[in-house]
Design a protein that fits this description.
Layout (H helix, E strand, L loop, with lengths): L4 H9 L2 H11 L3 H9 L6 H14 L2 H8 L13 H6 L8 H18 L12 H11 L4 H26 L1
Helix pairs in contact: 2-3, 3-4, 4-9, 5-9, 7-8
């Protein structure tokens, strides 16, 4: 990845409404989008990613729930959503037994925590996602919230990098 100063300039030059729309496609937390927008102009790709990290660090549990609301359930990418399908490409072609176990583990996780299981799925197989889900299920809510915060930051970094590369 290289720095694309023009991409940063293009992003920073967007009016407030357009920038909010773009950032909310990266992460559906309004608080996160506002914090990242307020950090502009970003001097580099690294500065934008630092704004992501700083914004993620400040999110409340309610804000994390806002952010998770924009994510598809692991093992069930949203049909027609290129981002969801790309991020969960590792489940394509997975054994139906693993997919069934993933669905059951998701349901148990959601019943315990009240939200989707969130993980940076990019590059992970269905079996790896299932193993991670099972590993995290015993966590207490506070521990899980901090893990989710870290996973969201990774996902946002990937999405921001893709956005800059596309501009």
């Amino acid at each position: 990845m290289t720095n694309h100063p023009h991409a940063l300039d293009t992003l920073a030059a967007a009016d407030a409404a357009e920038l909010a729309k773009i950032l909310l496609e990266v992460c559906s937390s309004p608080r996160w989008a506002t914090a990242v927008a307020e950090a502009k102009p970003w001097s580099s790709r690294e500065a934008l990613l630092a704004a992501n990290a700083a914004a993620m660090a400040e999110l409340t549990v309610a804000d994390l729930h806002d952010a998770m609301a924009g994510h598809a359930r692991i093992g069930r990418p949203k049909t027609g959503d290129a981002t969801s399908e790309r991020e969960q490409a590792g489940i394509q072609g997975a054994d139906q037994t693993v997919l069934d176990e993933l669905r059951e583990a998701n349901a148990a996780y959601e019943a315990k925590f009240g939200h989707v299981f969130l993980i940076c799925a990019t590059g992970r197989t269905a079996a790896a996602l299932l193993a991670a889900l099972r590993e995290r299920h015993p966590n207490d809510p506070a521990t899980e919230a901090e893990i989710v915060r870290g996973e969201l930051r990774k996902i946002n970094d990937i999405r921001l990098n893709r956005l800059l590369d596309a501009l």
